[in-house]
User: Which sequence fits this backbone?
């Protein structure tokens, strides 16, 4: 759909100073839409563009990330994948997929449009589930050769489960083959949502229709797709571009009641999984631990997210000189 047939840019309904453009995708003969978001104040002639991919129960709302990238001379784009955020449509199951490969065509198209706008190089910056999707995309996606780098913010390499819970995960994922549309509970710990949303104890304002504090239902078909993708990743990938894996210095087992520790640790994923599987992504992987980081490192308290940005831009400067 690049160039001819491409829909015009429209003012973003969520963030002032941003614009959106629909990307039409067909999945199993059905029509879906993803949404490409760009900052209206992007540099006129950028050499490098950042493409942000969100996580599960998520969408792009991190204006401060876009502003920081633009201040450093990068152009900034984000992609709300089909079934997420701005791309939610009536009759579409929120956040659902049968395979993460379903997202590859819209990533292909987003990269093609960004390149057509004048960017010489594209670097994906992805959080959590977006990190899992983009890692597999960078490994075998059709447009992987167009990527100059990959930044993973607390990537979803495995579930933070053990013992009987891990056995239950395997059973439920297997059931996803025959009962894909069956759902079993909401997908995010509400205490994590409370730690980031300004209506509770957090700092951030976002659209609760797109990102409910308690998350969206988890469908067994989605669960199966994620487990299969994680199995592939754990076996080792051969990503050809440089990769930066950013994660908190520690994880915290989700408590039953509020504790201030929720503001300084990853309470969604186990950072040991990132340490373990990160080096297997390719031959040019850098791992960086962020002391005091939350699950979404870019939503951590101000001093911590400044450290995240410094680490990210320092790495970008290094790979720009080498590649």
Assistant:
């Amino acid at each position: 759909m690049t160039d001819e047939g491409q829909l015009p840019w429209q003012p973003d309904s969520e963030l002032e100073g941003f614009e959106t453009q629909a990307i039409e995708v067909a999945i199993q003969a059905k029509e879906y839409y993803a949404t490409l978001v760009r900052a209206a104040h992007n540099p006129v002639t950028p050499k490098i563009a950042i493409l942000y991919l969100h996580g599960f129960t998520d969408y792009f709302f991190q204006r401060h990330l876009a502003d920081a990238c633009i201040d450093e001379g990068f152009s900034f784009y984000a992609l709300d994948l089909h079934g997420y955020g701005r791309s939610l449509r009536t009759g579409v199951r929120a956040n659902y997929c049968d395979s993460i490969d379903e997202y590859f065509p819209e990533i292909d198209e987003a990269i093609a449009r960004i390149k057509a706008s004048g960017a010489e190089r594209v670097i994906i910056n992805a959080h959590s589930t977006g990190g899992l999707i983009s890692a597999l995309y960078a490994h075998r996606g059709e447009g992987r050769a167009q990527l100059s780098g990959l930044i993973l913010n607390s990537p979803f390499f495995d579930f933070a489960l053990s013992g009987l819970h891990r056995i239950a995960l395997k059973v439920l994922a297997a059931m996803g083959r025959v009962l894909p549309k069956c759902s079993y509970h909401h997908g995010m710990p509400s205490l994590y949502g409370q730690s980031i949303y300004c209506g509770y104890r957090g700092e951030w304002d976002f659209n609760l229709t797109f990102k409910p504090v308690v998350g969206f239902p988890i469908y067994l078909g989605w669960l199966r797709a994620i487990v299969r993708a994680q199995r592939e990743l754990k076996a080792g990938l051969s990503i050809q571009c440089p990769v930066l894996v950013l994660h908190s210095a520690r994880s915290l087992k989700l408590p039953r009641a509020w504790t201030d520790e929720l503001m300084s640790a990853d309470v969604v994923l186990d950072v040991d999984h990132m340490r373990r599987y990160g080096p297997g992504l390719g031959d040019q992987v850098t791992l960086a631990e962020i002391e005091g980081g939350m699950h979404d490192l870019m939503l951590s308290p101000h001093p911590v997210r400044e450290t995240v940005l410094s680490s990210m831009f320092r790495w970008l400067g290094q790979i720009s000189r080498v590649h």
